[in-house]
Design a protein that fits this description.
2 domains, mainly alpha
Length: 225
């Protein structure tokens, strides 16, 4: 029961933060948020790491499934299954629900969506909450196989590269771009010198920007004006 609460709590908390924080930040007019002193203080406070209380061990820790000579841990299988379920749920949400269609309309043309009766500000708040919930779910999935360090946020740059390679606005493109970059990193780390594994995502990003800037599954359309 305690393990289940620790799994669900981050998703609930970050959903509320994503729902409430954008409005608070948009209404904040205090110049202190933009001052160098505030930035220095926030960086100094964030740079202090303290020992964390013991966290319950993952129930999937240590388990391995073997396919011939290939061994896959239970935790990695859980990540793959969770990602597939989450992507499928998002695809169904954006394709067959009124709120999902409203989100797509607001992202493509805010003014037209507003004239059609869509509450754009409320939809954007829900988008922030949904993004925070997805980020929390992803964090729960990868927590058993990764460690907390000051540079762990740089994985977001690789996620951005995957979105560019796959095509912005396309869920299928994001999945394809993520798989392409992930496989390229593994093969680069296996067959190329040290360091190429970390830079392969950016090499693929630059090549895609030269060859096909709109991405593999492009959703952009040309308009004659």
């Amino acid at each position: 029961m305690k393990r289940c609460q620790l799994t669900i709590l981050p998703t609930v908390v970050l959903t509320l933060v994503g729902l409430l924080a954008p409005n608070r930040l948009a209404n904040a007019q205090s110049p202190s948020y933009q001052s160098p002193n505030f930035y220095a203080a926030s960086q100094a406070g964030g740079g202090q790491f303290r020992p964390a209380p013991p966290f319950p061990a993952s129930p999937l820790a240590g388990g391995v499934v073997r396919f011939g000579e290939v061994a896959i841990g239970y935790e990695n299988i859980a990540i793959i299954a969770g990602t597939v379920i989450l992507c499928l749920a998002l695809f169904l949400f954006f394709s067959f629900t009124r709120l999902g269609v409203a989100m797509q309309a607001a992202s493509q043309n805010q003014l037209a969506a507003y004239y059609c009766g869509i509450p754009v500000k409320r939809v954007f708040s829900i988008i922030w909450a949904l993004s925070a919930a997805i980020a929390a779910t992803a964090g729960v999935l990868v927590a058993p196989i990764t460690l907390v360090d000051p540079l762990m946020g740089f994985v977001g740059i690789k996620a951005f590269a995957a979105a560019v390679v796959g095509g912005f606005g396309s869920l299928q493109g994001a999945m394809a771009g993520g798989l392409l970059i992930g496989i390229a990193e593994q093969f680069a780390g296996l067959y190329l010198p040290t360091g190429f594994s970390d830079t392969s995502a950016y090499v693929i990003l630059l090549l895609m920007l030269f060859i096909r800037p709109e991405g593999i599954f492009a959703t952009m359309q040309r308009k004659k004006v």
